[in-house]
Structures are given as structure tokens and as C-alpha cells.
Write a structure and sequence with these properties.
With 325 residues, this protein is of the alpha+beta class. Helix content is 15%, strand content 35%.
Length: 325
């Protein structure tokens, strides 16, 4: 009899899906700041130029390999390497070498498209370097005077970004992992462009804030989603969920939450506590599971099957077909 090798050691995780990933809060990156960031399995340097522009590039200098995120400096619109002073523009090209007039053609950093929205700095990742194919959605509630100042929390989750996103399309697990009495009735739909996925659910009030409400989640890509909850006139909650995939096995999640001002005292902190409690329910499952490239699904797993078909568009590699039992 031959045994199959242990899956915890042979399991192959997918690459990082293309999309916008949050690397920091805007407030953590002031003019002239240089930060070292580990994301997408790479060492990156994140900085803000004198004019206020944010830039992201691979961190290792093409010259002798110094890490630009450690003691690198912003000089005008460039970043200067701490080792021999080479300066790089935000597009990665070498602007100048202080001790030489001629800049070698291959003296360039791999730069990544960057943008700011919702109080966060994002990088666009595509494993073949293609340009951004959509924009980061702007959550208008976070700057609306009728809504509270956003609350924020961050967590490192030991899972692939795709598996974390899959959780929101998995209504059955709420009953088993999150101690809910029943599976909420939910419906998944996808926009005509095939990209943005919507999940609508009537929540019975046996979870979260304990009040019946309508939940609408918009999933723009794995690692970028909003959740809007409507409890009644003037009583709403908006959540932005962004991800920084650190490695294939570790993802830093950032949650930003605002509620309409009349319900701040009853819902503001409580909703945040609910998110944290939900994560600690999921954590042991995520920390110990493997990623199934080809799960066996039953006919009750319709939303999961829809998710797995939808998610393929974010990969360059051929993703396996799902199967049903
Ligand atoms: S290693 Fe960067 S300038 Fe020499
Ligand atoms: Fe969960």
C-alpha cells in the first residue's frame, strides 16, 4: 500500500492574486518618510516624496544590493540609497549617481503603481507587471460629517489572502465556527463586468450587534471588500476590509469601521469587538488548515463554488476546476 505524502508539507499555495493591497496607513507615512515593508513575499521600500507623492519599489538597490528601506533618504522626488548615494525616481529609473555622469541603462528598481484612498496607501500587484485594471473604491462614509471618525484595527492572520476572502462567501461556517443558531439566508451576485461580487443577506439579529439588519458586502478582489449594514433609518455601519499579503501563509488585515453618529455609543466599539471576536473564532481553523486547490464540494456549497470560479480571474496561472461530490 502506498501512502499519500502528508499534505501539510506538500501542499502548494497559489500565487498572489492581482489587485490593490494596503501597505500602511497614510498617517504612518509623512513627507520624507521611508519605510521598509515586507509584502507579496518581497522586500519593498515605501516612501513619500517632498511633493507628497507615495511610491513603492523593490527594496534592494541594483548597484550592490543595499536595502533602500533601511537608512534610505528622500531627496526631492527621489529616494537615495544609503550605501553609495544613487538616486531613483518614483518610476524606478535611476535619476543620478553622485560620483559618475553616466547612468547604466539597467540601473533601475522594480517600481509598483501606488495610490492613496480611505486613509491607506495601496500598491498594485500583478505578477507580470501589468498596469492597474481597476481603481480602489473610495468609501465616502469615512469623510462624511454624519458618520463617526473611522476606527481601525490590524491583525496578522496565518492564511493565504484567497482563503481569508473565501470566508465571507461561506455562510455554513457561521453556524459551526461563530456559534450562530442558523445559516443566514444570503445571495451572491456578480456585476456585468464579472469582477465585483456582491453578497446580500438578511441577518436575523442572532449575531454581531444582536439587531436584525440587511448586510451588503462588495468584494472587489481577494483582499479588498466593503461591508455595509443597515439597521434602519439613520442607523448604518460601514466596514472596509483591506489586506497586505505578507507571504503566502501570512496576511496582515486592516479593518476600518465607521457608523452613523446617532448609533456610535451603542454600536461603535461593540461592532469592533464583534470583528475581533469573529477573528479569534476563525484563527485556529486558518492556522491549521491547508489550502485545497481542488476541494470536494457538495450541492449545498453553491456560494463557495461561485467564489472559486470568480477568483480565477485574478490569477495568471491556470486554476484547477472545482469538483462536486
Ligand atoms: S548599493 Fe545602492 S548605491 Fe551602492
Ligand atoms: Fe469566519
Amino acid at each position: 500500500m502506498s501512502l499519500i505524502a502528508c499534505e501539510s508539507t506538500t501542499n502548494v499555495l497559489p500565487n498572489f492574486p492581482m489587485g490593490w493591497y494596503s501597505l500602511a496607513l497614510s498617517s504612518e507615512l509623512q513627507i520624507g518618510d521611508v519605510k521598509s515593508v515586507h509584502a507579496m513575499g518581497r522586500e519593498l521600500v515605501l516612501y513619500r516624496t517632498r511633493s507628497g507623492k507615495v511610491a513603492v519599489a523593490d527594496a534592494y538597490c541594483p548597484h550592490l544590493g543595499a536595502h533602500l528601506g533601511v537608512n534610505g533618504h528622500v531627496l526631492g522626488e527621489t529616494i537615495q540609497c544609503p550605501f553609495h548615494g544613487w538616486q531613483f525616481n518614483t518610476d524606478g529609473s535611476c535619476d543620478s549617481i553622485p560620483y559618475c555622469d553616466k547612468v547604466p541603462r539597467s540601473a533601475a528598481l522594480q517600481s509598483w503603481p501606488a495610490c492613496e484612498a480611505n486613509g491607506e496607501v495601496y500598491m498594485w500587484y500583478h505578477e507580470e507587471g501589468a498596469d492597474p485594471q481597476w481603481q480602489v473604491p473610495v468609501v465616502t462614509q469615512f469623510t462624511d460629517a454624519d458618520w463617526t471618525t473611522p476606527r481601525r484595527v490590524e491583525f496578522e492572520i496565518p492564511a493565504h489572502v484567497q482563503d481569508i476572502a473565501e470566508n465571507s462567501c461561506d455562510p455554513v461556517h457561521f453556524q459551526y465556527v461563530h456559534s450562530q443558531n442558523e445559516t443566514p439566508v444570503s445571495e451572491i451576485s456578480i456585476d456585468e463586468d464579472g469582477r465585483t461580487m456582491h453578497l446580500n443577506a438578511e441577518m436575523e439579529g442572532t449575531q454581531g450587534l444582536g439587531i436584525k439588519h440587511h448586510l451588503h458586502s462588495e468584494i472587489h478582489q481577494p483582499g479588498l471588500a466593503t461591508v455595509h449594514q443597515n439597521f434602519g433609518p439613520g442607523a448604518e455601519l460601514m466596514l472596509l476590509n483591506t489586506a497586505q499579503p505578507v507571504s503566502k501563509n501570512m496576511t496582515r488585515m486592516r479593518w476600518t469601521l465607521a457608523v452613523t453618529k446617532p448609533i456610535e455609543d451603542v454600536a461603535g466599539d461593540k461592532a469592533m469587538e464583534g470583528i475581533i471576536a469573529g477573528l479569534s473564532d476563525d484563527a485556529p481553523i486558518w492556522a491549521n488548515k491547508v489550502h485545497r486547490r481542488k476541494p470536494v464540494f457538495c450541492s449545498g456549497d453553491e456560494t463557495l463554488m461561485t467564489y472559486r470560479k470568480w477568483v480565477r480571474q485574478f490569477y495568471i496561472e491556470q486554476y484547477p476546476e472545482t469538483s462536486t461530490a
